[in-house]
Amino acid sequence: MFGVVPMGVLLPDSIMRHEAIAVLAAFVAINTIVYVTLSVAKILPKVYVSDWFTTRNRRAETRSIHPDAPI
Questions:
Q1: CA distances from 45 to 13, 41, 48, 49, 69 (A)
Q2: Which among 16, 39, 35, 17 is positioned nearest to 27, based on CA atoms?
Q3: pLDDT digits 0-9 by tens, 47-59
Q4: If I label 70, which of 5, 11, 49, 57 is the partner at 20 to 30 A Cα–Cα?
Q5: Whole-angstrom Cα distance, residue 33 to residue 11?
Q6: Keyword set for this entry (predicted)?
Q7: Cα–Cα nearest to 43, from 53, 35, 33
Q8: CB 62 within 8 A of CB 69
Q9: pLDDT at residue 21, rounded to an integer
Q10: What is the pLDDT confidence band of residue 34, given thresholds at 50, 70 and 90?
């Protein structure tokens, strides 16, 4: 009655093995990795490098109106 049609195959094998399709597939793969990386970076909290290192530009004493305030 009906012939067997392989499901999921849209293009013949000769087209899928073409160099232009391989370049397009590589571009899509790299684009996907970049998109996922940017999405994950947007979800995570911001990291400030200056918090990891102490610098010498801090005041030795507070200039607050409250003299006993922490530095």
A1: 46, 8, 10, 13, 29
A2: 35
A3: 888 777 766 666 6
A4: 49
A5: 26
A6: Membrane, Transmembrane, Transmembrane helix
A7: 35
A8: yes
A9: 92
A10: very high
Cβ partners under 8 Å of residue 31, min gap 6? none
Closest CA to 59 of 48, 47, 70: 70
Q: What is the pLDDT of residue 40?
A: 95
d(CA 46, CA 7): 46
Helices and strands (DSSP H and E) totals, the chain: 2, 0
List pLDDT tens digits, range 5-31: 666 667 788 888 899 999 999 999 999
pLDDT at 57: 67
Tokens found for residue 5? 């049609």
For residues 35 and 41, is the Cβ–Cβ distance under 8 A? Answer: no
